[in-house]
Design goal:
Blueprint (H helix, E strand, L loop, with lengths): L8 H11 L4 H4 L5 E2 L10 H18 L1 E3 L2 H10 L2 E3 L4 E3 L2 H8 L5 E4 L8 E4 L2 E4 L7 E4 L3 E4 L2 H13 L5 E3 L13 H12 L3 E2 L5 H16 L9 E6 L4 E2 L1 H12 L3 E10 L7 H22 L5 E4 L1 E4 L12 H16 L4 E4 L10 H16 L4 E3 L4 E2 L4 E3 H18 L6 H4 L1 H7 L9 H6 L15 H6 L5 H14 L8 H18 L8
Parallel strand pairs: 2-13, 7-18, 8-20, 10-11, 12-14, 14-15, 14-16, 15-17, 17-18
Antiparallel strand pairs: 1-7, 2-4, 3-4, 5-6, 8-9, 19-20
């Protein structure tokens, strides 16, 4: 987005008056969601088995690159066929299936505030914020490179919106901070500006080692349930690079969470057919999960899916497509086949602004995530432009959708009281129920109270400023930030974190951490 949108002061004041009451988004208590629906199953059990067998053939006959000596050592010791010169590994199906069997089906992800711990796996759903964006945008500034202030504001918003279960996940790249120390500043913000569970980069051994050290300062002994984790991206097709392997090995050895996620664009990183793309995704994901178990049996690992089609006109990723929806749902079926938690992504779109395209592509992604019983839904709020831009307005629009899912999945009661047959009889034909005791007792709590949707008549809407959803979302995120209160942190822990960061910044000044 290159152009800013002007909103008059009068329009802002009118909208703020409407929003002055406590936002419905803040009234939702922090809680885990359980999915009461039957999981969507696109493929039959026999078709899932065909994909399973195809992926085993890929692992046995084609193999994968593992571009790290320690990873090659682990595979060789386990009995896999290893070509060290080519950094290539072929994995026998018996070895693979025996190894992944030690990965836990469910686990608890601890937060700094124990009341915000989250369960991963089973029929639990957790939502994580946007992650890894280079640019940020809002209606005041347009689109520009992300800053540390942007990052901190996204963490504050993620902390305040209880439909999100994680406080931080690299929401936007702070490009005003030196590359060598960004991970330190990000994680400090995550630990101090929120008390929710945190995610932070698994990029090589040195960065991941710093994250483990900072987590130890906050949590003490890390031998229990995990407290931090991140994506391990496969360099599809069929390659794990040294940076990702360093992060995987470091996190797994410390008992922290790896979500192993191939990024496959059918037609580019795999053959063009979805069946082939999913067979390859399965092979790549299972190989990475198996490696986590070779490092440390029982280490928490999540099966990640990020398969979609390429746009054959531009060569770019296409998000919010029917093919992407198929891949999300079938990925969940495959994860259940191996009794593993499943990671998906929820607000994906190639739209450049939070417009109609952004809305429908996001819902073509989010609905399949929910229906398929995804356990960890990343990028659930704020994603724009194929993942290049984190939008404050899109963040609020997406959070509103997540809040509606909370309401939807909570279901409704059927009882004598809710059937209200006595009210139907009392009002009778041709009347109305606005004034009945049943309506009066429930009118403020019965329906989801939207913070964004405008349901006024046209003339009233125009008189109130005529703001569209993006403009209303702009006001909402500013109002939320204005009411932010930082959670408390033991001053001794805060001081220890700052001391560690100061020392490491001196040590890392000017250092290239890409391969370390």
């Amino acid at each position: 987005m290159t152009d800013t949108v002007e909103i008059s002061r009068a329009d802002r004041r009118a909208a703020r008056r409407r929003q002055r009451a406590e936002s419905p988004l803040l009234k939702i208590p922090f809680r885990q969601l359980r999915n009461p629906l039957r999981p969507l199953e696109i493929l039959s059990p026999d078709q899932i088995e065909e994909l399973h067998l195809a992926s085993l053939r890929i692992l046995e006959e084609v193999g994968l690159d593992f571009m790290d000596n320690e990873a090659l050592d682990l595979w060789q010791k386990a009995g896999a066929r290893v070509d060290r010169a080519a950094q290539h590994v072929w994995i026998d199906r018996g070895l693979l299936l025996e190894t992944i069997a030690t990965a836990p089906a469910t686990f608890t992800w601890r937060a700094r505030n124990p009341e915000r711990d989250v369960s991963i796996g089973g029929n639990f759903i957790t939502f994580g914020p946007n992650g890894g964006m280079v640019y940020t945008s809002n209606l005041d500034i347009g689109r520009r490179p992300g800053t540390m202030q942007d990052y901190e504001n996204f963490v504050r918003l993620s902390h305040m919106c209880n439909v999100l279960h994680f406080g931080c996940w690299e929401q936007v790249t702070p490009q005003d901070v030196p590359v060598s120390v960004r991970h330190l500043r990000r994680l400090y913000a995550g630990f101090t500006l929120s008390d929710k569970a945190v995610m932070e980069a698994a990029h090589g051994r040195e960065i991941t080692g710093d994250i483990i050290k900072m987590a130890e300062i906050v949590f003490g002994d890390l031998s229990g349930d995990p407290v931090v984790g991140d994506v391990i991206n496969v360099n599809s097709p069929l390659r794990y690079d040294s940076r990702m392997l360093g992060g995987l090995i470091t996190y797994a050895r410390a008992g922290q969470v790896c979500f192993i996620t191939p990024f496959i664009l059918a037609g580019a990183m795999s053959p063009i057919t979805l069946a082939s793309a999913l067979a390859q995704q399965n092979a790549e994901a299972l190989a990475g999960i198996a490696l986590t178990q070779l490092v440390r049996p029982g280490a928490p690992a999540i099966y990640g899916g990020f398969t979609t089609n390429v746009d054959m006109k531009s060569g770019s990723p296409a998000f919010g497509t029917p093919e992407g929806a198929w891949a999300l749902a079938i990925g969940a079926q495959l994860a259940r086949r191996y009794n593993l938690p499943y990671r998906a992504s929820g607000s994906l779109t190639t739209a450049k602004v939070p417009d109609a395209q952004a809305a429908y592509e996001t819902l073509w992604t989010l609905w399949p995530c929910i229906l398929a019983h995804s356990n960890l839904i990343m990028h659930a709020a704020g994603w724009l432009e194929g993942g290049l831009t984190a939008s404050f307005e899109k963040f609020i629009i997406d959070v509103e959708n997540l809040a509606m899912f909370y309401h939807f999945l909570g279901g409704f009661e059927i009882s004598d009281e809710t059937l209200a047959l006595d009210m139907i009889a009392e009002v009778g034909p041709g009347g109305h129920h606005f004034g009945t005791p049943h309506t009066q007792a429930r009118y403020s709590t019965e329906f989801y109270p939207s913070v964004l949707s405008d349901r006024q008549p046209y003339d009233t809407w125009r008189e109130a400023g005529g703001l569209d959803a993006m403009q209303r979302a702009h006001i909402v995120w500013q109002e939320l930030l204005a009411s932010y209160e930082q959670p408390s942190l033991d001053p001794a822990i805060d001081e220890a974190l700052q001391d560690y960061i100061a020392r490491r910044e001196r040590e890392l000044e000017g250092k290239n951490l890409y391969d370390s």
